[in-house]
Fold these 2 entries.
Entry 1:
Amino acid sequence: RTSDVGVASNFNEIQSLSSANLATRLRNQYSEDIDSTLNGVTLTTVGVDTNSSAKVSSLNEVSSQTGISAFSYGNSLVSAANSDDDGTSLAMSSGDLVINGVAVGAVSVNTADGLETAINAVSAQTGVTADNGGGAADMVLFNTGGDAITINVKTAAAATRSGFSTGVTEVAAGDNGAVVLTGALSDTTITAGSNGTLQAIAGQTGGATDTLAASTVTSLNVNSINEANVAILAVDSALSSITSLRSSLGSIQNRFESTISSLTSTAENFTAARSRIQDADFAAETAALTKAQILQQAGIAILSQANSLPQSALSLLQ
């Protein structure tokens, strides 16, 4: 049944996150390193402040052993330093910050929150949303389509407020999105060797285990690239299950065919033996009949001779 095949994944969870929660996940994920294991298998080490593409590669290198595959959802740029929200007056004019070729307007409130508002005011043009974690964390610029992000910081004030260095900082398409994890439908729990490793791949804090949700073939769609990726994985899992089942059935069929062939050969041998037995009996009966006929004829001949002897004796006496 199609409801019994698919994958376990955190994709729907990630896709349904609010902008603030997605930014938090991206920030947590970016700030931690992979330094231990997943499902008992050692992962290639990936340092802190490293794009998710390296973490996806680390996971996929051992996917056949862990049972977990990964790909990236969306894209993001995370600032190298905390955005400044201390209330200090740092004037920012229109164009001091340029995102994807679009100038961000003047910041009327000289705080990181004010800069976040100014960036989000042009998000329809840049395709980028900003979140500074309430002024207490690194600035995250992100999108859900996976497009490349480029930021050009032109003044020291913009650098201080945003947390990005002066000059151009960019991330290639899909290079630093949220890590989507997928595994077998029958096993939805994943376990990392450390809290930090799970945070680096799942963006969550406070634990080393996570639960993936079931995504069956019947619940999938291909409305976006990432949904299509999950659908492909689910269908691939279904095909693998079908292939495995066909292999098992093929093996059973081969055993049946072998048994049928053996029984057919045995039946043919029995038929041949029966024919030989019947042929041997026919010959014996024929021999017995011939013997009886010879004995009968010999007896008749002897009786005939015996009857003729007295007549011969009388002839001599006459």
Entry 2:
Amino acid sequence: MPMNTAPPAAKALGGMPASKGGSIRALSGIVGIVLGFVVGYGVGRVSTGTPINPLSGSTNGVDPAALAEVQQKLIAAGLLTPLLENTPVLSGKIVAISGSSLTLEADLSRYDPLGAKGLPTRRIVTLTDKTEYARYEQLSAEELRKEQEAFDASLRNPEPGVPPRQPPAPFRQTEASSSDLKIGDAVTVQAAGDILSAESFEAVRVSISPQPIAEQVQNAPPDMPEPPPPTAPDSAAASTEPPPEVVR
């Protein structure tokens, strides 16, 4: 083959030669169209005074089929992870407690980020005598350091016949009960079956998550009074006489 002859171009669909630059331009065009739709959707909601809340569980007049199409294009372009179709577990915040049930404001960002499925965010969770409870508490920096040192030591000096130690986790699990639940708690609720679209269900397990750092700071006790400003050294405070005159 002559040196100045280009190799045969790869054939795309339809028998037309494809180039790397053309593929990049085509992908960029698709991404641009998708992002343009999303931005236009948000701007339109702002202009009408409607808050942008993709977790609201309502499409607010937007065609659900169009939103579903956008989600699929985002997934195909690698800009969105594939959505889960069912799940026995939901996380969220407790917004109400009444007797043996609680109202969960579910976080659906993993399942329906654009609200195309119209999933309900408010879920009624029934607590039974078989429901299990747990609380996850965040370890202090000192506790986590000790756990890490113990883990490192187990790797340096493994014991024959002893399973390897698990890497340290930043949380510890403790027992809890239904009386520990309160409004505002971040929880993860597990059911016996698929609850992705269920408006109400019985809880098999309820896990109380650690309080977010922002709320820890907000709920911290009032600051202690500031200490008084430092005073001058004793020698300087005791010296009240004017400096001696200089004799020439």
